[in-house]
Specification:
- The radius of gyration is 21 Å and the shape is globular.
- With 378 residues, it is of the alpha+beta class.
- Strand 1, helix 1 and strand 2 form a beta-alpha-beta unit.
- The chain contains 14 helices and 17 strands.
- Helices cover 31% and strands 26% of the residues.
- It folds into three domains: 85 residues, Rossmann fold (3-Layer(aba) Sandwich), CATH 3.40.50; 61 residues, Dna Ligase, domain 1 (2-Layer Sandwich), CATH 3.30.1490.20; 184 residues, ATP-grasp fold, B domain (D-amino Acid Aminotransferase, Chain A, domain 1), CATH 3.30.470.20.
- The strands form three sheets. Strands 9, 10, 11, 12, 13, 14, 15, 16 and 17 form a nine-stranded antiparallel β-sheet that branches. Strands 3-2-1-4 form a four-stranded parallel β-sheet, sandwiched between helices.
- Helix 1 crosses helix 11 and helix 4 packs antiparallel against helix 5.
- Bound molecules: adenosine monophosphate.
- The site of adenosine monophosphate has 13 residues, from strand 14.
């Protein structure tokens, strides 16, 4: 079946569909509404953060054909806000409505082994790794690593879930067992200097615009802080943009793509990709002339990607349920800081590890911003 394409850019008043109703869908919807588009969210839950700010909501599971058909009827173009939507649902939708990103790219991003094979096939930098489908493969795979490795489930891992650092083949075998003997990847442990990500947008005309490189710091496997521009040499910034650009072109990608990488001794290796806006791109909402969500709307609507400029250095930090549940958490304190832009996702319940919002701090000096954050968190 031929995939439906846009004949011309969509004008204000058109309806954009999004699969998934979380915070990324919410910020997409807010950007779309600013540009005069209506949004229809497909999500099974009644209290979806995205549906709360959108004109239309189809309450259905992501593989429910009747629900998908109702979404297609109402939309002029459709995208996704998370990678675990079945690629077949995207294929079904694109028989009648233009869909981006391409279902094949989403399918690759859903499985760490498919990702790594794609990187290798396209000569993109990737760390030593091996696919594990049965316990018998672990000994020889571990022998190829440097003595320390990370076993990860191939699918459905996020925020450090479904992964275990292992110092021996026996530990890796125990982790494989604990994950329920499902397809995994064993990766060499990277003693990285820092983690970075590129968020870029590619439009239907093939133009690519990358946002400035982000330096990412994680805590308990969850993104904690983003520092932009990343504190790495210009050569590393350029290399990272080149790698992400080559990847987007190799996938014939349309939409917003995030590429997470490790920097180790000045060399880059790709960790994983996200076929959608990314938490590490949230700083763009306040620090740049266009946000990653503006670019998502533009690419979906058939508009050219906008040239991006960062006005000021930024540090973004995530507001997790953990902080909001603390007795001394004070919204007022947060809202009283100069140049702190607080974004709240409208989730009904704060839970440990749950992303409830984020704060973009802007200022002339990154070191001052980091000092401010230390003060805020104590
Ligand atoms: P991921 O879910 O793959 O993004 O992994 C979550 C975090 O675990 C990463 O951001 C890194 O901090 C760490 N991590 C993942 N893979 C490796 C690796 N191969 N070597 C070292 N640290 C890793």
């Amino acid at each position: 079946m031929v995939a439906k394409k846009l004949n011309q850019p969509l004008e204000p008043g058109a309806t954009l569909g999004v699969l998934g109703g979380g915070q990324l869908g919410r910020m997409f919807s807010q950007a779309a509404s600013k540009m005069g588009y209506k949004v229809c969210v497909l999500d099974p839950s009644a209290d979806s953060p995205a549906a709360e700010v959108s004109a239309l909501h189809v309450r259905a599971e992501f593989d429910d054909q009747a629900g998908l058909a109702r979404l297609a009827e109402q939309c002029d173009a459709i995208t996704t806000e998370f990678e675990n939507v079945p690629a077949d649902s995207l294929r079904f939708l694109q028989t009648s409505v233009p869909v981006c990103p391409p279902p094949e790219a989403v399918e690759i991003a859903q499985n760490r082994n498919l990702e790594k094979s794609f990187f290798k096939d396209h000569r993109l930098p990737v760390n030593t790794c091996a696919q594990i489908t049965e316990a018998a493969q672990i000994d020889s795979a571990f022998a190829k690593m440097s003595g320390k490795a990370v076993l990860k489930t191939a699918r459905f891992g996020y925020d450090g879930k479904g992964q275990q650092v292992c110092s021996s083949a026996a530990e890796a075998a125990a982790a494989f067992e604990s994950f329920g003997v499902q397809e995994c990847v064993l990766e060499d442990f990277v003693p990285f200097d820092c983690e970075v990500s590129v968020v870029l947008a590619r439009d239907v005309y093939g133009n690519i615009e990358a946002f400035p490189l982000v330096e990412n710091q994680h805590k308990n496997g969850i993104l904690d802080l983003c520092i932009v521009p990343a504190r790495v040499p210009q050569t590393v910034r350029q290399q990272a943009a080149d790698v992400a650009t080559k990847l987007a072109e190799s996938m014939q990608y349309v939409g917003v793509l995030a590429v997470e990488m490790f920097v180790c001794d000045g060399a880059l290796s790709i960790n994983e990709i996200a076929p959608r806006p990314h938490n590490s791109g949230h700083y763009t909402m306040d620090a740049c002339n266009y946000s990653q969500f503006d670019q998502q709307v533009r690419t979906l609507a058939g508009l050219p990607v906008a040239k991006v400029v960062q006005h000021q250095p930024a540090v973004m930090y995530n507001l997790l349920g953990d902080q909001l549940l603390e007795d001394n958490f004070q919204w007022l304190k947060l809202q009283s800081i100069d140049n702190a832009h607080v974004h709240v996702y409208g989730k009904a319940e704060a839970r440990l590890g749950r992303k409830m919002g984020h704060v973009n701090l802007l200022g002339a000096e990154t070191s001052d911003l980091l000092d401010k954050i230390v003060g805020l968190k104590n």
